[in-house]
TrEMBL record:
Belongs to the RutC family. This is RidA family protein. PANTHER family: 2-IMINOBUTANOATE/2-IMINOPROPANOATE DEAMINASE RIDA, 2-IMINOBUTANOATE_2-IMINOPROPANOATE DEAMINASE. It holds the Pfam family Ribonuc_L-PSP.
Length: 126
């Protein structure tokens, strides 16, 4: 049985999907981009600020499912330009303890929704 997870503290979906789905003890999040949930405006000042907004959105979705970043077992990072990897990684790394950080892949893609620079999705387990 699946449970749909939603929160007003993260951007509302801009298509036919939900912020996250809880299946048993496993949470599957949709990808988050740097939309400010209060204004639904993109936060694209620079790649670090953009990444921070994405991670804050992810935290809000996890919290709506009564989870935290400590529950995350896998992340997927999509970049429009791999030259941004080190800056994204720097911000991303502030959200996790190196000893318990989740598995991850980071890939460069041709384009992302709304032509943003970074999108991140997560899988978490209670």
């Amino acid at each position: 049985m699946k449970k749909i997870i939603t929160t007003s503290k993260a951007p509302a979906p801009i298509g036919p999907y939900n912020q996250a789905v809880l299946a048993g003890n496993t949470l599957y999040t949709s990808g988050q981009i740097a939309l400010d949930p209060n204004t639904m405006e993109l936060v694209l000042d620079d790649i670090k600020t953009e990444t921070k907004q994405v991670m804050e959105n992810m935290k809000a979705v996890l919290e709506a499912a009564n989870m935290s970043l400590e529950n995350v077992v896998k992340t997927s990072i999509f970049l429009s330009d791999m030259n941004n990897f080190s800056q994204v990684n720097e911000v991303y790394g502030t959200y996790f303890n190196n000893n318990t950080a989740p598995a991850r892949e980071t890939v460069e893609v041709a384009n992302l929704p709304k032509f943003v620079n970074v999108e991140i999705s997560m899988i978490a387990v209670k």
